[in-house]
Specification:
binds sodium ion; 8 strands; binds glyceraldehyde-3-phosphate; binds zinc ion; binds 1,3-dihydroxyacetonephosphate; alpha/beta
């Protein structure tokens, strides 16, 4: 059954677990997540980016979400807009059956340029009022995602900020977080702690200098009742890098957010953990493997089925690690 983000994260906080929020763009990813959840009795957050909505079409996506909730009636399912950029994106998501929206006002509507604090408060509060009036939940974001290693935001993939950012912008300020939550009435708060979107987060296994988990602890101390959200939380497993590269891939060595650091975050108020890249890599590894080991193959299902199974296993591992398993 469909539930809101607020309902799900309240339960997660009560029982001290975290919920991975997996991005989807197609049926196979949806089925992979739900199969994993069914296998370990976990509640689910499925999220769609603006890019996913234009890739799959709003009607297709929304009927797919309905189908998933009908096929898996016992799995609580929150359907979330990832990185909404303005009121219209959030409103149309709700109209298509999403039970939760992210208004990312840390960036201007172009999704690239860092926005002022006042802009962020105003647009997030407006979306909150609108969404709450119709029973949907809202996630806001304070702080801009980007690398503490380079001192730059992300630009290439269309997410995150353009150009150089100060250290301050890249780490959420705990006192400002208190003010932000009070003024916007968000149900969940995404924070910046040195993670970034995509596969290339860190050039080495992250320590406290480049992955600032202490910021999360400081925010949780001041906002013990606010559900915190970690973006850019793929772990970029070495074995998936190796699998891709063993089958013709050319991914440069990279490091993600270690699962044990996320688990530490969950002990300090993190309730929603955004993961897209790991799922993409799990599928892409299988596409490459089938393509190179069975060169005569041309049935898309022969590529998609192993890809779906690999994504299912990855999702299951996150449900188990974050304590989501057993809480459906
Ligand atoms: O926010 C980042 C997610 O990985 C979605 O990515 O905009 O390419 O669909 P996307
Ligand atoms: P990753 O790129 O680390 O999977 O992050 C996804 C994300 O934050 C979506 O909002
Ligand atoms: Na989101
Ligand atoms: Zn994100």
């Amino acid at each position: 059954a469909k539930i809101t983000l607020r309902q799900l994260l309240d339960h997660a906080a009560e029982r001290s677990y975290g919920v991975p929020a997996f991005n989807i763009n197609n049926m196979e990813q949806g089925l992979a997540i739900m199969e994993a959840a069914k296998g370990c009795d976990a509640p689910v957050i499925i999220q769609a980016s603006r890019g996913a909505r234009s890739y799959a079409n709003d009607i297709m996506l929304s009927k797919m979400m309905d189908a998933l909730s009908e096929i898996y009636p016992d799995i609580p399912l929150c359907i979330h807009q990832d990185h909404g950029n303005d009121e219209a994106t959030c409103l149309t998501a709700i109209r298509h059956g999403f039970t939760s929206v992210m208004m990312d006002g840390s960036l201007k509507a172009d999704g690239k340029t860092p926005a002022s604090y006042d802009y962020n408060v105003a647009i997030t509060a407006a979306v909150s009022q609108m969404a709450h009036a119709v029973g949907a939940s809202v996630e806001g974001e304070l702080g801009v995602l980007g690398s503490l290693e380079s001192g730059h935001g992300e630009a290439e993939d269309g997410h995150g900020a353009e150009g150089a950012l100060t250290h301050d912008q890249l780490l959420t300020d705990p006192d400002q977080a208190v003010d932000f939550v009070m003024r916007t009435r968000v149900d969940a708060l995404a924070i910046a702690c040195g993670t970034s979107h995509g596969a290339y987060k860190f050039s080495r296994k992250p320590d406290g200098d480049i992955l600032a988990m202490h910021v999360i602890e400081a925010i949780h101390e001041k906002l013990p009742n606010t559900h915190l959200v970690m973006h850019g939380s793929s772990s970029v497993p070495q074995e998936l890098q190796d699998l891709i590269n063993a089958h013709g891939g050319e991914m440069p060595q990279t490091f993600g957010v270690p699962v044990e650091e996320i688990v530490r975050g969950i002990r300090h108020g993190v309730r929603k953990v955004n993961i897209d890249t790991d799922c993409r890599m799990a599928m892409a590894g299988q596409f490459r493997k089938v393509a190179t080991t069975n060169r005569a193959e041309f049935d898309p299902r022969k590529f998609l089925k192993p890809a779906m199974d690999a994504m299912r296993d990855l999702c299951r591992a996150r449900f188990e690690a974050f304590g989501t398993a057993g809480n459906a």
